[in-house]
Amino acid sequence: MAIDVNLLPLKVPPEVRDKVGFETDTFLNDLLFSLFQLRQVSTSDGGTGPSEPGNTTNNSFSFNGAAEATKVIPTTETTNVTMVDYQFVNAKNSITVTFPQYPVENSFVIVRNGDGSKITLDGNGKNINGSSSGVLRRATTTIEFFYFIDDDEWFAR
Fold first, then answer.
1. Most exposed residue of 59, 103, 128, 154, measured as fewest CB within 10 angstroms of its CB?
2. What is the 8-class DSSP label of residue 121?
3. In sequence order, what E strands does 44-100 have?
């Protein structure tokens, strides 16, 4: 079964675009496109979704996975943040990314180190792969974490 992922139009500030060398404002959409191997989907009005990275005509993507529709919420954060279920955080500036305190069953979050600084992961009272915290140090490292309610713990994929 396909999952529709509705993405917000994302804008890259000019100073960031100059540092990372992106030519367009769709780098997170492109990243999600490749990360999830997204494919074109039909819309109710007979149109189609993006057929390639950067084409965000209706901001609707699809990938094979869980049985129900899930919205991924992509954000870029430069100050400490507490995530919500199904959030994609592009973390920068040595921030602490705190996982949701009360995740729903089968929840997931995605964290990306956007600049190579030390990004601290805080389980917010729950373990992350057996530890209460973790660190992402390498630029562009992207990890998807799944919440398992039976273990009350986040596991990296």
1. 59
2. E
3. 60-64, 73-77, 81-82, 87-91, 96-98
Place of tokens 């992106």: 22
- Distance of alpha carbon 53 from alpha carbon 70, whole angstroms: 20
Residue 83 CB coordination number (10 Å): 26
Residue 25, both tokens: 């404002």
Sole residue written with tokens 């373990």: 127
Q: What values do phi and psi take at 119, rounded to 5?
A: -100, 120
Domain locations in the chain as residue ranges = 1-69, 72-157
For residue 28, the SS3 value is helix
Lowest average pLDDT, out of 15-19, 86-90, 125-129, 143-147, goes to 15-19
> Using an 8 Å Cβ cutoff, are 7 and 55 in contact?
no
Which residue bears the tokens 């990296």? 156
Residue whose token pair is 């039909």: 42
**Superfamily name and number for 72-157:** gp9 (2.60.120.640)
